[in-house]
Write a structure and sequence with these properties.
alpha/beta, Rossmann fold, seven-stranded parallel beta sheet, 6 helices, globular
Length: 194
Amino acid sequence: MKRICVFAGSNTGIRAEYELMAEALGNELARRGLELVYGGSKIGLMGRIANTVLALDGKALGVMPTGLFRGEMVHTGLTELHEVKDMHERKALMGELSDAFIALPGGYGTLEEVFEVVSWGQLGIHSKPVGLLNVNGYYEPLVQMIKNGVEAGFIPATHEELLICEEDPVVLLNRLQEYKPPAQTNKWSELSEA
């Protein structure tokens, strides 16, 4: 692994632990020599992790749609800033540049991004690991929802392994580096295996 894409809130949230864990993850990325790929903002948890990586002489690559956000949001001190046409192009380039994905706490955008890359993994579009940094139990309801999907027959049981959830950035990165994708199984219960 060379680059990790981190999806994160454009706000910092109401708990100090969210910022502290964004910084802890940034520290660990820089310590391991892993480059950060992210949405290119200088605010929120996105800004915290980028600033941490850069302060430790790490590399931070941002991907931002041209003209979509106010200029004061764009981080101007990045190693690289890729300007793209729209959000679809943004996510595609972030995926292309990255060897693994991690979601810090965030809102609709973060959830949408993590579910898209998990779906791509399920369909065999990529075999890259996807992790959740479960700060203060933030992702426990989501993990339970996935278990509900398995129990209800909407998600194959082996596909539960497509999403790695840990509370510690060191443990999470270790698991991402050791990741072996689950065997491809038929996701469509009404179709034969052939």
